[in-house]
Amino acid sequence: MTKTSFISHKYTIVICTRNRVKYLSKTVEQLLTLINQSNESKLLIVNNNSTDNTASYIKFISEKNEKIDSINCTEVGLGNARNAAISHCDTEWIVYLDDDALVADDWLIQLNRIASSYPFDAFGGLYTPWYAEGKKAWFYDEFETNVHMFPKDESEGILKTSYFSGGIAAYKLLPLKSVGGFPTDIGMSNNKISYGEEIHTQRNLAMAGYKLGFSKLWKMIHLTPLKKQSLVWSWKKQFALGRDFWEIYNKKKDYENLKRYSTQKLHKLSPYEDFKKFRSINACVYKMASISFVFGLFFGYMRK
């Protein structure tokens, strides 16, 4: 459903979703309490061909609120859904928020402050875990946060050597369009575990001369379900990151690069230090999933 364009708006907040209506409804309804108080923001929900009750929910909530627009993207995949939002967007900024997150009360205030105060062309915020289904005793908050991606001693600023999460991310629309949006051959797609489409796009922006930033003050909590609090999930995730590494970072698939990046990853392993810190075999094995990254790296290397 497409409504009249809100030309006066500065930000289009985009939620891409597929078959997660339970958490989508919590995210949307909490976000609306903020959007309804803002004259600069509107919400766009991209239904990525859901087969549950997502379409019915979107229709219901859209009819109740003029600040909600929605489209259906029939090509399954997060990259496809994000690109569909770009094509539909008519504001200066396009802002992506995951469909299973709750934002801080000052989320829109911080968004506008950062966009207005810094020369960023794109920037990301901080996420920490949301244990809506409960928390396993051995699982640590640091396993599901992106705080390690940002400079340790700064609350916000320019990103020089790392990238921000795609689940809480703001982009100026024109630069994002200029680099072709998001790739569709990597990133989450239906039940396939895959990552990195947002890093690929941020690299393209940086190489084109655009400025990337971050702020730890722009915050959300992100669902960490029980299935992700598992050793199997951690090792599967790291395998996928290794497998897709070559495409994410546009690296040449040769033996020297395979050796270099495998060695770098394995050198970061510190099982003894991890055990002293966590005092948990499960937590240590979770952290040792870097080994699975190397397996994935080799798999991706062989997939020429």
TrEMBL record:
<dbReference type="InterPro" id="IPR050834">
    <property type="entry name" value="Glycosyltransf_2"/>
</dbReference>
<feature type="domain" description="Glycosyltransferase 2-like">
    <location>
        <begin position="12"/>
        <end position="172"/>
    </location>
</feature>
<dbReference type="Pfam" id="PF00535">
    <property type="entry name" value="Glycos_transf_2"/>
</dbReference>
<keyword id="KW-0472">Membrane</keyword>
<dbReference type="InterPro" id="IPR029044">
    <property type="entry name" value="Nucleotide-diphossugar_trans"/>
</dbReference>
<feature type="transmembrane region" description="Helical">
    <location>
        <begin position="285"/>
        <end position="302"/>
    </location>
</feature>
<dbReference type="GO" id="GO:0016740">
    <property type="term" value="F:transferase activity"/>
</dbReference>
<keyword id="KW-0808">Transferase</keyword>
<keyword id="KW-0812">Transmembrane</keyword>
<dbReference type="InterPro" id="IPR001173">
    <property type="entry name" value="Glyco_trans_2-like"/>
</dbReference>
<protein>
    <submittedName>
        <fullName>Glycosyltransferase family 2 protein</fullName>
    </submittedName>
</protein>
<keyword id="KW-1133">Transmembrane helix</keyword>
